[in-house]
Amino acid sequence: MMLTLHHAPDFSSTIVRLALEELELPHTLAIVDLGGGALAAPEYRQVNPVGLIPALETDDGPIFETAAILLWLVDTTGRLGPGPNDPDRGAFLSWLFFTSNALHQAALAMFYPHRPAGEANTDATRATAQDQITARLGLIEAMIGAQSPRWLSPDQPGALGYYIGILVRWLILLPPEPYGLNLDDFPQLKAVLAAHEARPAAQRVATDEGLGRTPFTNPGT
Amino acid sequence: MSYTLYHIPDWGSSVIRLMLEEIGVPYSVALLDWDAGDFDSAAFRAVNPLGLVPALATPDGPIFETAAIILWLNARHGGLGPAPTDPDRAAFLSWLMFVSNTLHQTVLTLIHPDRVAGEAVQEVVQAHALERLHGEASRLEAMIIAQDPDWLSPRRPGALGYYLGIILRWAMYLPENKTRRFSLDPYPSLRAVLKAHEGFPAALRVAAADGLGDTPFTAPAVALE
Predict the structure, then answer these.
(1) What is the pLDDT of residues A195-217, one digit of tens each?
(2) Which one of B72, B104, B109 has the shortest CB-CB distance to A89?
(3) List of chain A residues whose C-beta atoms are within 8 Å of the C-beta of residue B75
(4) Please, what is the end-to-end C-alpha distance for chain A in angstroms?
(5) Could you say which of A16, A198, B48, B162 would form a disulfide bridge with A54 (CB–CB 3.0 to 4.6 Å)?
(6) How many CB pairs under 8 A join A and B?
(7) pLDDT value at position B221?
(8) Are A158 and A151 in contact (CB under 8 A)?
(9) pLDDT, tens digit, for every residue of A129-155?
(10) Is residue B3 within a helix (H) or strand (E), and if so which, with residue range?
(11) Kindly report the CA angle at B196 between B192 and B202, in degrees rounded to 5?
């Protein structure tokens, strides 16, 4: 299997890179020059017509969208999440798509608040996003507490742990005052992410991309 | 095998009702009443902690999020799109996710523009959302023309056709300001897919049960005006 990840360091494609490293799947990185208009280039639109990273070129053609790539890797390798016939599959899919549709989208509204409502209304957009992010992380925290799922656990690496880890990293680092995230408010999730960031795969990616030694739980150091 | 769909007609759960009808499995419908507070009840939160429809109770426990339920049903029963081992899976998953986390979210913003940043700025939010929705629909149109995929085609029913049918339906008739309503006119290939889907037997059954009218995906306002 030939795999090429279209990538920029510390972007969403880092989530996919973490999964590829954890799976020890050989892959090539195609570094995208985000400032140079590379995402709009016709050659790149052949890979991802939506013009975003991540995109992963595979023997079955290109895949884009973070959750789509993660799920494809889980189903292709049988690792990092429950397979199609596993009794845990339904819960795993539900929370993977909740992360993609609700948590990730609210995070994007926090980081790019001019997109939904224009430059004049960025404070109102950020305030709404802050409330959504807090509520949605609270649902994940409660779920971990109630279910202790093996697909989002400190005991074994999983696709969703890496996905949420990168989102949490940005939510700690990027929002301007008074917005942001205190991960201590979500202790179960923090334990899951601390275990994930300590994995050799995560340390390799963190070193290569300059993410620090605790990229998910204390990204400022 | 028994399924229970938590449902409000013409809400997101109609997408899942279409899937269940297309597969042809038995299921029961648990109708919820938003105004009665059913979404906040402890019984429903035990099924879906998010307090949203759709949610599907299965022998493996509850599943929520539209795309999650679609993929789960497709893996168990087939008939809705490429199976986990199909080479077309890569493209199908990519576009299903794009519809789920981008186009679907844009439609929700178009029909609930007050949710993004409050009522004071809902006009500008809605205008932005309609502009984005046209950009996203044009990407789908270009993909259908370039790839003519079996999994989003007038030739056969599929999960993505039904999913788009319901959410674009809302965009076409729910905005009170008619200038902010979505139109399929610039997208003839997408329109042909949706036209075929609203004529498939499963869609006819759901349209009758949920009161969606004769052309639920291509001219939803006709039934109302």
Answers:
(1) 999 999 999 999 999 999 999 99
(2) B72
(3) 84-85, 89
(4) 37
(5) A16
(6) 138
(7) 73
(8) yes
(9) 999 999 999 999 999 999 999 999 999
(10) strand B3-7
(11) 150
